[in-house]
Amino acid sequence: MGLAAAALVGALTLAACGSSDSGNSSGDSGSGGSAAPSNLKIGMAYDIGGRGDKSFNDSAAVGLDTAKKNFNLSDDNVKELSARSGETDTDRATRLELLAKSGFNPVVAVGFAYAPALKTVAPKYPNVKFGIIDATPDDVSGPNVTNLTFAEEQGSFLVGAAAGLKTTTGTVGFIGGCSVPLIAKFEAGYKAGVEAAKAGTKVLTKYLSTPQQNCSGFNDPAAGQEAAKGMYDGGADIVYAAAGGSGSGVFTAAAAANKRAIGVDSDQYLSADPAVQKTIMTSMVKRVNVAVLQFLTDAKDGKVKAGQEIFDLKVDGVGYATSGGKVDDIKDVLDGYKAQIISGAITVSDKPQK
Protein backbone atom coordinates (compact mmCIF):
# COMPACT_ATOMS: atom_id res chain seq x y z
CA MET A 1 0.00 0.00 0.00
CA GLY A 2 1.39 3.38 -1.02
CA LEU A 3 2.18 6.42 1.09
CA ALA A 4 -0.89 8.25 -0.19
CA ALA A 5 -3.14 5.45 1.01
CA ALA A 6 -1.40 5.37 4.37
CA ALA A 7 -1.78 9.11 4.75
CA LEU A 8 -5.49 8.89 3.95
CA VAL A 9 -5.98 6.15 6.53
CA GLY A 10 -4.28 8.29 9.14
CA ALA A 11 -6.43 11.28 8.30
CA LEU A 12 -9.59 9.21 8.50
CA THR A 13 -8.60 7.73 11.84
CA LEU A 14 -8.00 11.16 13.33
CA ALA A 15 -11.37 12.31 12.05
CA ALA A 16 -13.25 9.51 13.81
CA CYS A 17 -16.23 10.38 15.95
CA GLY A 18 -16.07 9.38 19.63
CA SER A 19 -13.40 6.72 20.04
CA SER A 20 -10.41 6.89 17.75
CA ASP A 21 -10.78 3.13 17.39
CA SER A 22 -14.44 3.16 16.47
CA GLY A 23 -14.26 2.17 12.81
CA ASN A 24 -17.56 4.02 12.43
CA SER A 25 -15.91 7.30 11.52
CA SER A 26 -17.45 9.34 8.81
CA GLY A 27 -13.95 9.66 7.49
CA ASP A 28 -14.69 13.28 6.64
CA SER A 29 -11.60 14.92 5.24
CA GLY A 30 -13.04 18.33 5.96
CA SER A 31 -14.30 19.27 2.51
CA GLY A 32 -17.86 19.35 3.82
CA GLY A 33 -19.16 19.06 0.26
CA SER A 34 -17.87 22.52 -0.60
CA ALA A 35 -15.90 21.32 -3.62
CA ALA A 36 -17.30 21.65 -7.12
CA PRO A 37 -19.79 18.85 -7.82
CA SER A 38 -18.26 15.74 -9.35
CA ASN A 39 -19.82 13.83 -12.22
CA LEU A 40 -18.61 10.53 -10.78
CA LYS A 41 -21.35 7.88 -10.66
CA ILE A 42 -20.75 5.32 -7.91
CA GLY A 43 -22.38 1.90 -7.73
CA MET A 44 -22.41 -0.09 -4.48
CA ALA A 45 -23.43 -3.75 -4.30
CA TYR A 46 -23.80 -4.81 -0.64
CA ASP A 47 -23.54 -8.27 0.82
CA ILE A 48 -26.44 -9.98 2.62
CA GLY A 49 -27.85 -7.68 5.29
CA GLY A 50 -27.11 -4.54 3.31
CA ARG A 51 -26.99 -1.06 4.76
CA GLY A 52 -28.24 -1.25 8.31
CA ASP A 53 -26.53 -4.48 9.39
CA LYS A 54 -24.57 -2.51 12.04
CA SER A 55 -21.42 -4.34 10.96
CA PHE A 56 -19.62 -5.08 7.68
CA ASN A 57 -22.01 -3.45 5.20
CA ASP A 58 -22.55 -0.40 7.36
CA SER A 59 -18.80 0.18 7.49
CA ALA A 60 -18.71 0.15 3.69
CA ALA A 61 -21.68 2.53 3.65
CA VAL A 62 -19.75 5.01 5.81
CA GLY A 63 -17.03 5.13 3.15
CA LEU A 64 -19.63 5.70 0.45
CA ASP A 65 -21.39 8.43 2.43
CA THR A 66 -18.09 10.20 3.01
CA ALA A 67 -17.25 10.07 -0.68
CA LYS A 68 -20.68 11.41 -1.57
CA LYS A 69 -20.18 14.34 0.79
CA ASN A 70 -16.56 15.04 -0.09
CA PHE A 71 -17.13 14.80 -3.86
CA ASN A 72 -20.39 16.80 -3.62
CA LEU A 73 -22.35 14.09 -5.42
CA SER A 74 -26.08 14.26 -6.04
CA ASP A 75 -28.37 11.40 -5.05
CA ASP A 76 -28.67 10.42 -8.71
CA ASN A 77 -24.90 9.85 -8.84
CA VAL A 78 -25.04 7.05 -6.28
CA LYS A 79 -26.83 3.71 -6.62
CA GLU A 80 -26.97 1.11 -3.82
CA LEU A 81 -28.21 -2.46 -4.23
CA SER A 82 -28.22 -5.29 -1.67
CA ALA A 83 -27.91 -9.06 -1.79
CA ARG A 84 -30.63 -11.34 -0.45
CA SER A 85 -30.41 -14.60 1.43
CA GLY A 86 -30.26 -17.69 -0.77
CA GLU A 87 -29.31 -15.97 -4.00
CA THR A 88 -26.95 -17.42 -6.60
CA ASP A 89 -23.80 -16.21 -8.34
CA THR A 90 -26.03 -15.40 -11.31
CA ASP A 91 -28.11 -13.10 -9.11
CA ARG A 92 -24.97 -11.29 -7.96
CA ALA A 93 -23.70 -11.01 -11.52
CA THR A 94 -27.02 -9.51 -12.59
CA ARG A 95 -26.71 -6.89 -9.84
CA LEU A 96 -23.16 -5.92 -10.83
CA GLU A 97 -24.07 -5.83 -14.51
CA LEU A 98 -27.10 -3.65 -13.84
CA LEU A 99 -24.85 -1.08 -12.17
CA ALA A 100 -22.19 -1.23 -14.88
CA LYS A 101 -24.53 -0.97 -17.86
CA SER A 102 -26.42 1.87 -16.14
CA GLY A 103 -23.29 4.00 -16.30
CA PHE A 104 -22.05 3.62 -12.73
CA ASN A 105 -18.26 3.66 -12.61
CA PRO A 106 -16.61 2.80 -10.25
CA VAL A 107 -18.56 -0.12 -8.79
CA VAL A 108 -17.81 -1.57 -5.36
CA ALA A 109 -18.71 -5.18 -4.57
CA VAL A 110 -18.93 -5.61 -0.80
CA GLY A 111 -17.85 -9.11 0.14
CA PHE A 112 -15.94 -12.12 -1.18
CA ALA A 113 -19.22 -13.75 -2.27
CA TYR A 114 -19.17 -11.46 -5.32
CA ALA A 115 -15.91 -12.94 -6.64
CA PRO A 116 -17.43 -15.57 -8.99
CA ALA A 117 -19.88 -13.00 -10.34
CA LEU A 118 -17.17 -10.41 -10.88
CA LYS A 119 -15.13 -12.93 -12.86
CA THR A 120 -17.99 -12.94 -15.35
CA VAL A 121 -18.93 -9.28 -15.32
CA ALA A 122 -15.58 -7.43 -15.20
CA PRO A 123 -14.38 -8.60 -18.65
CA LYS A 124 -17.66 -7.43 -20.21
CA TYR A 125 -17.10 -3.88 -18.99
CA PRO A 126 -13.36 -3.21 -19.38
CA ASN A 127 -13.76 0.54 -18.86
CA VAL A 128 -15.53 0.16 -15.52
CA LYS A 129 -13.34 0.09 -12.42
CA PHE A 130 -14.46 -2.57 -9.96
CA GLY A 131 -13.37 -2.73 -6.33
CA ILE A 132 -14.13 -5.86 -4.35
CA ILE A 133 -13.88 -6.17 -0.57
CA ASP A 134 -12.23 -9.28 0.91
CA ALA A 135 -11.54 -11.13 -2.34
CA THR A 136 -7.88 -11.79 -3.17
CA PRO A 137 -6.44 -11.98 -6.69
CA ASP A 138 -6.66 -15.76 -6.32
CA ASP A 139 -10.44 -15.32 -6.08
CA VAL A 140 -10.82 -12.83 -8.92
CA SER A 141 -8.45 -10.61 -10.85
CA GLY A 142 -8.33 -8.47 -13.95
CA PRO A 143 -6.98 -5.20 -15.36
CA ASN A 144 -10.06 -3.36 -14.04
CA VAL A 145 -10.35 -5.15 -10.66
CA THR A 146 -8.91 -3.83 -7.38
CA ASN A 147 -8.83 -6.27 -4.47
CA LEU A 148 -9.39 -4.45 -1.17
CA THR A 149 -8.26 -6.81 1.60
CA PHE A 150 -7.41 -6.65 5.29
CA ALA A 151 -5.11 -8.29 7.82
CA GLU A 152 -8.03 -9.57 9.89
CA GLU A 153 -5.74 -11.95 11.74
CA GLN A 154 -3.78 -9.01 13.17
CA GLY A 155 -6.81 -7.19 14.56
CA SER A 156 -8.24 -10.47 15.83
CA PHE A 157 -4.99 -11.17 17.67
CA LEU A 158 -5.52 -7.99 19.70
CA VAL A 159 -9.09 -8.80 20.73
CA GLY A 160 -7.98 -12.38 21.41
CA ALA A 161 -5.32 -11.03 23.74
CA ALA A 162 -8.01 -8.94 25.43
CA ALA A 163 -10.13 -12.07 25.90
CA GLY A 164 -7.17 -13.98 27.32
CA LEU A 165 -6.39 -11.19 29.76
CA LYS A 166 -10.02 -10.78 30.84
CA THR A 167 -11.32 -14.35 31.08
CA THR A 168 -11.94 -15.64 34.58
CA THR A 169 -13.10 -19.12 33.58
CA GLY A 170 -10.21 -20.07 31.32
CA THR A 171 -12.63 -20.71 28.45
CA VAL A 172 -13.64 -18.32 25.65
CA GLY A 173 -15.48 -18.74 22.36
CA PHE A 174 -15.29 -17.93 18.65
CA ILE A 175 -18.30 -17.89 16.32
CA GLY A 176 -17.76 -17.55 12.57
CA GLY A 177 -20.51 -16.71 10.11
CA CYS A 178 -19.34 -19.10 7.40
CA SER A 179 -16.63 -21.75 7.13
CA VAL A 180 -14.44 -20.05 4.53
CA PRO A 181 -10.73 -19.08 4.48
CA LEU A 182 -11.53 -15.41 5.14
CA ILE A 183 -13.27 -16.11 8.46
CA ALA A 184 -10.57 -18.63 9.35
CA LYS A 185 -8.21 -15.63 9.45
CA PHE A 186 -10.31 -14.13 12.26
CA GLU A 187 -10.25 -17.45 14.13
CA ALA A 188 -6.49 -17.84 13.64
CA GLY A 189 -5.64 -14.40 15.00
CA TYR A 190 -8.07 -14.67 17.89
CA LYS A 191 -6.72 -18.02 19.05
CA ALA A 192 -3.13 -16.78 18.75
CA GLY A 193 -3.91 -13.68 20.80
CA VAL A 194 -5.71 -15.68 23.49
CA GLU A 195 -2.77 -18.08 23.77
CA ALA A 196 -0.22 -15.25 23.89
CA ALA A 197 -2.06 -13.52 26.73
CA LYS A 198 -2.98 -16.58 28.77
CA ALA A 199 -1.45 -19.86 27.62
CA GLY A 200 -3.70 -22.88 27.98
CA THR A 201 -6.99 -21.00 27.67
CA LYS A 202 -9.62 -23.14 25.94
CA VAL A 203 -11.25 -21.68 22.81
CA LEU A 204 -14.64 -23.11 21.78
CA THR A 205 -15.28 -22.72 18.04
CA LYS A 206 -18.47 -22.80 15.99
CA TYR A 207 -19.25 -21.88 12.37
CA LEU A 208 -22.87 -21.06 11.58
CA SER A 209 -22.92 -22.03 7.90
CA THR A 210 -20.97 -23.24 4.88
CA PRO A 211 -20.64 -21.98 1.30
CA GLN A 212 -23.03 -24.77 0.29
CA GLN A 213 -25.60 -23.02 2.51
CA ASN A 214 -24.85 -19.72 0.77
CA CYS A 215 -23.08 -18.51 3.93
CA SER A 216 -26.47 -17.81 5.51
CA GLY A 217 -24.78 -17.62 8.91
CA PHE A 218 -23.86 -14.00 8.31
CA ASN A 219 -27.50 -12.96 8.65
CA ASP A 220 -29.02 -15.35 11.19
CA PRO A 221 -29.20 -13.75 14.66
CA ALA A 222 -31.16 -16.72 16.03
CA ALA A 223 -28.36 -19.11 15.08
CA GLY A 224 -25.80 -16.76 16.59
CA GLN A 225 -27.78 -16.60 19.83
CA GLU A 226 -28.11 -20.39 20.04
CA ALA A 227 -24.42 -20.98 19.37
CA ALA A 228 -23.34 -18.39 21.92
CA LYS A 229 -25.75 -19.74 24.55
CA GLY A 230 -24.16 -23.16 24.13
CA MET A 231 -20.71 -21.68 24.66
CA TYR A 232 -21.72 -19.68 27.74
CA ASP A 233 -23.44 -22.77 29.15
CA GLY A 234 -20.23 -24.67 28.41
CA GLY A 235 -18.11 -22.37 30.56
CA ALA A 236 -17.06 -19.58 28.20
CA ASP A 237 -17.29 -16.11 29.66
CA ILE A 238 -16.29 -14.19 26.50
CA VAL A 239 -17.38 -14.94 22.90
CA TYR A 240 -16.00 -13.26 19.75
CA ALA A 241 -18.48 -13.15 16.88
CA ALA A 242 -17.10 -12.80 13.35
CA ALA A 243 -20.53 -13.35 11.89
CA GLY A 244 -21.91 -10.10 10.49
CA GLY A 245 -25.55 -9.53 11.38
CA SER A 246 -25.67 -12.75 13.41
CA GLY A 247 -23.54 -11.03 16.02
CA SER A 248 -26.64 -9.34 17.40
CA GLY A 249 -27.84 -12.76 18.54
CA VAL A 250 -24.51 -13.35 20.28
CA PHE A 251 -24.94 -10.08 22.17
CA THR A 252 -28.44 -11.12 23.21
CA ALA A 253 -27.11 -14.41 24.56
CA ALA A 254 -24.32 -12.61 26.40
CA ALA A 255 -26.79 -10.29 28.09
CA ALA A 256 -29.02 -13.19 29.13
CA ALA A 257 -26.06 -15.06 30.62
CA ASN A 258 -24.51 -11.93 32.15
CA LYS A 259 -21.33 -12.66 30.16
CA ARG A 260 -19.24 -10.66 27.69
CA ALA A 261 -18.92 -10.53 23.91
CA ILE A 262 -16.56 -9.10 21.30
CA GLY A 263 -17.92 -7.39 18.20
CA VAL A 264 -16.49 -7.23 14.71
CA ASP A 265 -15.91 -4.96 11.70
CA SER A 266 -17.18 -1.74 13.35
CA ASP A 267 -17.23 -0.55 16.94
CA GLN A 268 -20.44 -2.36 17.75
CA TYR A 269 -20.69 -0.83 21.22
CA LEU A 270 -21.71 2.39 19.49
CA SER A 271 -24.52 0.85 17.44
CA ALA A 272 -25.80 -1.88 19.77
CA ASP A 273 -29.17 -1.83 21.44
CA PRO A 274 -28.80 -0.35 24.95
CA ALA A 275 -30.07 -3.65 26.39
CA VAL A 276 -26.96 -5.48 25.17
CA GLN A 277 -24.44 -2.66 24.96
CA LYS A 278 -22.91 -3.41 28.35
CA THR A 279 -21.93 -6.91 27.19
CA ILE A 280 -19.63 -5.67 24.41
CA MET A 281 -16.11 -5.64 25.82
CA THR A 282 -14.41 -4.51 22.61
CA SER A 283 -14.69 -5.01 18.85
CA MET A 284 -12.20 -5.99 16.18
CA VAL A 285 -12.39 -2.93 13.97
CA LYS A 286 -12.01 -3.61 10.27
CA ARG A 287 -12.05 -0.24 8.55
CA VAL A 288 -13.92 -1.14 5.39
CA ASN A 289 -14.90 2.53 5.19
CA VAL A 290 -11.24 3.47 4.74
CA ALA A 291 -10.74 0.97 1.92
CA VAL A 292 -13.94 2.05 0.15
CA LEU A 293 -13.10 5.76 0.41
CA GLN A 294 -9.53 5.14 -0.76
CA PHE A 295 -10.76 3.25 -3.84
CA LEU A 296 -13.42 5.86 -4.68
CA THR A 297 -10.95 8.71 -4.24
CA ASP A 298 -8.47 6.98 -6.53
CA ALA A 299 -11.26 6.48 -9.07
CA LYS A 300 -12.19 10.17 -8.97
CA ASP A 301 -8.55 11.15 -9.42
CA GLY A 302 -7.88 8.60 -12.17
CA LYS A 303 -5.37 6.73 -10.00
CA VAL A 304 -7.02 3.33 -9.58
CA LYS A 305 -4.63 0.42 -9.87
CA ALA A 306 -5.56 -3.19 -10.45
CA GLY A 307 -4.47 -5.82 -7.96
CA GLN A 308 -4.37 -6.19 -4.22
CA GLU A 309 -4.37 -3.47 -1.56
CA ILE A 310 -3.83 -4.72 2.01
CA PHE A 311 -5.05 -2.68 4.97
CA ASP A 312 -3.18 -3.88 8.07
CA LEU A 313 -2.21 -2.65 11.53
CA LYS A 314 0.61 -0.59 10.12
CA VAL A 315 -1.86 1.69 8.32
CA ASP A 316 -4.66 1.30 10.89
CA GLY A 317 -6.70 -0.78 8.48
CA VAL A 318 -7.61 -3.01 11.43
CA GLY A 319 -7.55 -2.48 15.19
CA TYR A 320 -9.61 -2.75 18.35
CA ALA A 321 -12.28 -0.54 19.89
CA THR A 322 -12.13 1.06 23.34
CA SER A 323 -15.68 2.42 23.66
CA GLY A 324 -17.26 1.66 27.01
CA GLY A 325 -13.93 1.64 28.83
CA LYS A 326 -13.91 -2.13 29.39
CA VAL A 327 -10.35 -2.60 28.10
CA ASP A 328 -8.86 0.64 29.40
CA ASP A 329 -6.95 -1.22 32.10
CA ILE A 330 -5.20 -3.48 29.56
CA LYS A 331 -4.79 -0.95 26.74
CA ASP A 332 -1.04 -0.59 27.32
CA VAL A 333 -0.61 -4.35 26.98
CA LEU A 334 -2.71 -4.51 23.82
CA ASP A 335 -0.83 -1.58 22.30
CA GLY A 336 2.40 -3.40 23.15
CA TYR A 337 1.24 -6.40 21.15
CA LYS A 338 0.22 -4.05 18.33
CA ALA A 339 3.70 -2.51 18.24
CA GLN A 340 5.31 -5.94 18.15
CA ILE A 341 3.13 -7.04 15.24
CA ILE A 342 3.91 -3.86 13.30
CA SER A 343 7.65 -4.26 13.95
CA GLY A 344 7.61 -7.90 12.93
CA ALA A 345 8.56 -9.17 16.38
CA ILE A 346 5.25 -11.07 16.36
CA THR A 347 4.03 -12.72 13.16
CA VAL A 348 0.37 -13.65 13.20
CA SER A 349 -0.59 -16.64 11.08
CA ASP A 350 -3.76 -16.41 9.00
CA LYS A 351 -4.44 -20.12 9.45
CA PRO A 352 -5.86 -21.54 12.70
CA GLN A 353 -3.68 -23.86 14.74
CA LYS A 354 -5.19 -27.27 15.23
Order of helices and strands: HEHEHEHEEHEHEHEHEHEHEEH
Major sheet strand order: 2-1-3-4-5-11
Euclidean distance between termini CA atoms: 32 Å
Task: Give a short account of the largest sheet.
Answer: 6 strands, parallel
Q: Which descriptor suits the 3D outline?
A: globular
The tally of helices reads 11
Give the oligomeric state: single chain
Question: Would you give an account of this structure?
Answer:
The protein has 11 helices and 12 strands. With 354 residues, the chain is α/β, with parallel strands linked by helices. A 6-stranded parallel beta sheet has the order 2-1-3-4-5-11, with helices on both faces. A 6-stranded mixed beta sheet has the order 7-6-8-9-10-12, sandwiched between helices. The two termini are 32 Å apart. Residues 1-34 have low confidence and may be disordered.
